[in-house]
Prior knowledge:
Largest sheet: 2 strands, antiparallel
Radius of gyration: 16 Å
Amino acid sequence: MGHFDIACSQLCGLGHFRMKGVITVESEADYRRFLAAEAALLVR
């Protein structure tokens, strides 16, 4: 679990070197809580 830097893996153009992001890995329990909260929003 944690935050990890990621980069574009496809040579896609002039801005390719700037295509970066962060992926967050969470526990399954945290993910299930997130899904439950999102589902509750749809029921309103």
